[in-house]
Fold these 2 entries.
Entry 1:
Amino acid sequence: MTLLAMFLALLALVLLDVPIAIALGVVSSGAMILSRGLDALPNVALVLFDGSANFPLIAVPLFILAGAIMNATGISRRLIALATALVGFVRGGLALVTVGASMFFAEISGSAVADVAALGSILIPEMRRKGYPGPFAAAVSSSAATLAVIIPPSIPMILYGAMAGASVVELFVAGIIPGVLGGLLMMGVAHLMAVRYGLPVEQAFQLRRVWMALRDAGWALALPVIILGGIFGGWVTATEGAGLAVLAAIVVGGFIYRELDWRQLRVATIEGGVQTAVVMLLVAASALMSTHLTEVQVPQEVAAAIVGLTDSPWAVLALLNLFFLVIGLFLHSAAAIVLVIPIVMPLVRAVGIDPVHFGLVVTLNLGIGQQTPPVASVLVTACSIAKADIWEVSKVNLRFIAILLAVLLLVTYVPAVPLFLVQLLYR
Amino acid sequence: MTAAARAWVPRVRAGVERALEWAVMGLMAALATVVIAAVIFRKAGAALVWYDEVAAILLAWLTFYGSGLATLKQAHIGFPRLVQRLSGRSRGAAVVLREVAVLGFLGAVAYAGWQVTVGLWGTYLVSLPAVPRALSASAVPLGALACMAAELLSVFTWRAGVPAPEREDGP
């Protein structure tokens, strides 16, 4: 009953265009004051402060900043040149380059919107110039960008780890196989579509060209090795790895490539700070919601009610998959994670689902949500760069969404796919 | 709205925006510097004892001051489609209800944050005993006030007929 009343109040405020973070704050603090009186008010400020001073989430602004520096120093351009040398000889090569470059970029940035903004702004106009249909160019850029949240590092995984109390490093490792698999399948579909559209081959394959591109992008390629190697090897924590990513991007871009564009960096830093604040205010407001819901035992009641119906982890996973796919239509990934994870985690643990396995399921679901209108941040960014109609792009994008769904099903029902490397390295 | 008000609203808005942008850039740079320094010092065998506490406080400051800037840039995640489709009095009523909810909550947070800040007066950070805890907690009331100012400026900008910035997307 409490949950239903809070949900309805939240829905009413969100429909009135109250920002979701503020709506969460209004509903949660209202519920706290109703149950404990005005004495609860100072607690609202304390919980908001503690919720925002969440140490593991320091990695979020730092990975965003690292991506901004990469963009401002020509690192993205070098990654695109390398991907072109590697896969440009295939028909529809630029589409494959988009997927390949997204996979490289994903290893440093962790944000799908940053990925599509950085690579799409270079590759979409180039694809249009070479005769690729606008909706196809936008669809492949948009879906490939989602690999950024599956391949480590990943901002949604950091958020999930903080909310669910799961190891961020294990989540990162669990994302490797599904991310690479998704990327390769996307390349296959992009090639088949390119054959159908009669799209051109980019350039003949030459070992010399690959070698030169590799030499030019060598330092850019060293970035993920330093960052992920440091994190996976236990040399640094995920938060420290994010700091290392910033340092490495400054050294490589500013001192080795000497291409730091200060104006672009300034704009990207401000945008990164704003994005961080948006996510962190949501996290802080969700801390208010969690505090109240835990006090009135709502997550435990939800878990008990569903376990009463079924205690099969597979049935619960199917139910949660459906639920996340639906809310992914209407909510940004950060909002969905902070709203839902604290409520469903007791259920997930009660039926014996591995939190790292579930983390990958959630990340993939919300990655698909970034591609499905009406609320589809990554798709909208790609459409605005391509100046293409969102519904036309969505029709083409269905093929790439089908790939993400296939990877989701594989990850959900064959836990070895995400957990194989985790078991091998950490358990 | 008078012509004079139409003239000063964009100017005040630009000033507030610039101040918040500098605050956000400074906090991002400070956060990165602290984390990088912590890695270097830890690897050098001289771990910084204040690192965790200070970095977490910087993130909290970035959250609250950055939220002010996000409010000004209309970057907070929301669902504007329904209100955008309304017209006339129903849209006016929806906007009033929205502002009551937003400003009411921010006002309550500013008041509660001020109470907490005053209550913490005389206590100091565990790892940096020279730094008052009230200073770290002051981000809550000051950030809430910055958000209120940004919200009011957005309303005045709308009333003055100046186009609002495009909505931005989160990560």
Entry 2:
Amino acid sequence: MNYLKPIHSALIAIVNDEPEHFFFKGEPSYENLIWTSKTLKKPTEDEIAKKIQELEIERERTEYQRQRKPEYPSIGDQLDALFHAGVFPSEMAEQIQAVKDKYPKTP
Amino acid sequence: MSTLKVNTITNVSGSSIPNPISLSSTLVALLTGVTWSSGLINTTQTLGSISSYTTPKTKLVRVSIHYMHSGSTNHGYLTGWVFQTGKTYNIDGTYIANSHYDWYYNIFQTEVLIPWDPNGTQSISMYVVDALNTSSSNVYSMYYTGRIDQ
């Protein structure tokens, strides 16, 4: 989830997620950008626009990952299916079975 | 911007009539994307001017401190006094405390009232008592959200 404005996300990428390089006086915009970094040069408006475009392309490229994630079965269900398919190493399968035997299903 | 008038007292024979209180609400960004850290501890930072919004009758100003944690397993702390620029922070200001160490995504908002002198500087400041931030995605934002006039 990301509620940041595109210019803010682009600047975070430009500063490699190191805090304290900038903030905004008012709403996020290039005009309101206050550059406080002592080590990094303030990016130009064109450089920020280019980074916004790069992030947008990357977001579109990985959109399928965000679409798939909520529809996958839970990791627990996936592991349980593997256990019942008998594909776990015997030591792990024995540990799981021991827990199941200790707390049997309510009839 | 909306204005609501409350507490209007009708005339009562022989008694004085207090001025009505007027509440106003708005949302004006003062600073956004704030990731102040330990280098600013014990310093005063200007949040912004609100001279366009106050009136000669303003007695209290509303300031909202908004925190968004979006940087995974790391820190976002900001504690201090919000006050009218030029006043004494720990006498005329309001204390806020935020200490967030988290893993997930969170939004947290605190609104404070600060006493206002219509004849003073029409600007808001913050004296930073504690600040630590380890991700540019953990951001504080400060908004002017209204005033109380009388």
